[in-house]
Amino acid sequence: MHADLIGKPLQMPWRLRFDRDCLIVLRRSLLAVAPEEGCALLLGDSGCDPRVRVVWPCCNVWRPGQWGMDDQADGRGCVNPSRQTRFALDPLEQIAAQRWGRRWGLVVLGSAHSHPGGVPVPSRTDRLWAAVNGVMVIDAGAGGLAGWWMERSIPGPDSTPVRPAEAHPLRLMSPEGASLGDTGLSPHNSHCCTFDDGSASGV
Ligand SMILES: [Zn+2]
């Protein structure tokens, strides 16, 4: 993902509130393109307590050779990357969403995408391509739904590789503050996620 068009920088939140209808729209739109990865932008209120108000479904425009990072291992044993294991947001969609959001007082909080048949944890590729701080929601279908705060990857000096973004778990909640995990909408009940580089984070 290239998220360089995401709105103004945010402080790290601990939760992501989600209008119920938005969550339904999101999950259906991501599922619609399975087994390929679906993707969407999330617009809402900014600040340290973000709330998703609008889901902006996008086409997965990933193609081989894009950004020269196709040979990066993604932790899922992927040797021939495809849209079943990669996604890319159309930059024009990002611009359109940003413009639309500005008109309605909303910002692009981040993105969502699916991991068909996988787990709702950012892959190494997800972490490498996170260009700015922002929200990342991952829907793995039966594998669960999870929200993350991505602290952007930092390019190293010329000769060193990009450092992957840090992924901090977000609690997904209804606008009233009820945990979506308690409503049956978020079946992801793990208490600890292990990243593909061996690091771990509590959920
Ligand atoms: Zn991913």
Describe this structure in words.
With 203 residues, the chain is of the alpha/beta class. It has one domain (15-202): Cytidine Deaminase, domain 2, CATH 3.40.140. It is built from 3 helices and 9 strands; from the N terminus they run E-H-E-E-H-E-H-E-E-E-E-E. The protein has helices at residues 20-31, 91-103, 124-129, and strands at 15-18, 39-45, 51-58, 107-114, 134-139, 145-151, 166-173, 192-194, 200-202. The strands form 2 sheets. The protein has a 7-stranded mixed β-barrel. Strand 5 and strand 6 (145-151) form a beta hairpin. The two termini are 23 Å apart. The structure holds zinc ion (ZN). Zinc ion binds at residues 113, 115, 123, 126, 138.
Give the arrangement of secondary structure elements:
Elements: E1 15-18, H1 20-31, E2 39-45, E3 51-58, H2 91-103, E4 107-114, H3 124-129, E5 134-139, E6 145-151, E7 166-173, E8 192-194, E9 200-202
Parallel strand pairs: 1-3, 1-7, 4-5
Antiparallel strand pairs: 2-3, 2-4, 5-6, 6-7, 8-9
The structure holds zinc ion (ZN).
